[in-house]
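During the reporting period the student researcher (J.K.) took over the structure-prediction task from the postdoctoral fellow and processed the backlog of single-chain submissions. One of the processed entries is reproduced below for the supervisory committee.
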Amino acid sequence: MTISVQFFGAAGEVTGSCHLVTVGDQRILLDCGLIQGGRKDEARNRDPFPFNPETIDAVVLSHAHIDHSGRLPLLVKSGFRNTIYTHRASRDLCRVMLKDAGFLSEKDAEWENRKRERKGLPPIEPLFTVEDAKIALSHFKGLVYADKQQILPGVSLRLSDAGHILGSSIVELWLDEGAKTRNLVFSGDLGRSGMPVLEDPAVIREADRVIMESTYGDRLHRSWEDTEEEIHQVLNNAMDGKGNILVPAFAVGRTQEILYLFAKYYEEWGLARWHIFLDSPMAIEATRVFTENADLFDAETAELWKQNGESPLLPDLHISRTAEESMAINKIRRGAIIIAGSGMCTGGRIKHHLKHNIWRKECQLLITGFQARGTPGRALVDGAQHIRLWGEEIRVAARVHTIGGLSAHADQNGLKNWYANFQGRPPVTLVHGEERSITSLSKHLYQQLSAPVHIAQAGERLEF
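J.K. obtained the following structure tokens:
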């Protein structure tokens, strides 16, 4: 019986995680994520799957982020009829995120079709709809950590905490190959030790093959202490500058970490001087899911969250659910901290706040997460002097702060140390990284740990 893994996404790039495991005549898909980035990158999401969705026997989803889960509605729409296994918290977050993605897809198609109609072009269909997302969600089965169970004949699964976002999982698959059983470990996205809110990534010691992410394989993060002090200084300086602070934040994970830090240092950072706006319906819903899964928090966060519910220790937190509430924020010229999606500034309400603030020299922009190539967020980090919003060229006068130490991904040392726990140095295949990071991590794993390293290529098939 042949066991193989084929890499159809996040191979040589960060987004679009999708890997196909074949065991005899059974096929298990690890993740099924959206490709994110520029228009050309995102257009690839409309390409047919490079496999027949009807032949997939099961999907195992590592976590809820859209670059890992976002094509699941398309998979179901294309004929997948079986079960999607994931942690129960990831299932709950996907109920929020996939519906939101479907809504945005419908709106994008509506906007595009208005332009196409004026040009005499045929209309396009949404990538997927809210209804498509609901149908896909009916296939989800929520699991808990550390519970090993059979999901197919000769295939067993166990999820362990990856420490990246709520419900994020390291995936272990036991695959029967005749008289032998092979153990495949997929890291998903690994978090950082000591990260706020969540537990540290679980230690896994046995594997016949490892598939590991490499998002930050070429760098070391700043310490938590230095990162927190950096945020403190930005807040102090911004208050003197008489402007607003914009915080593009991923709705799941980063938003909750920022709220936690603001709660922890509310007095020390002088946050009573600010009006804090959480301007993202999806982030508001995700925060509710976090609250309902507080048993997954580390001890300090669990206690803080338990005491204060949805808005921990933030009496000046304003929840902006409606479009009207969001538009009202744009009238505020100073003293506002605006946390809004999307995290890479590709859509959502942050684009409106950029339009009203980014040209003002007294504005401060806090970049708090990874910015993929081709996104407006990446352009701002790289020093763009102008950005284009709804066809309008807007000058960038705001001060841009890249708070790299807030990353929810393990850095080079974190990835290396996680792999070092495996007994016998199993073969490791690197995915989910741009060329520079993945090449650097490969070199360090080989030189320092004598690891048999392979860099996944798109479409490549590896046999055990």
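The committee noted the following: The CA atoms of residues 10 and 432 lie 5 Å apart.
J.K. will present the remaining backlog at the next meeting.
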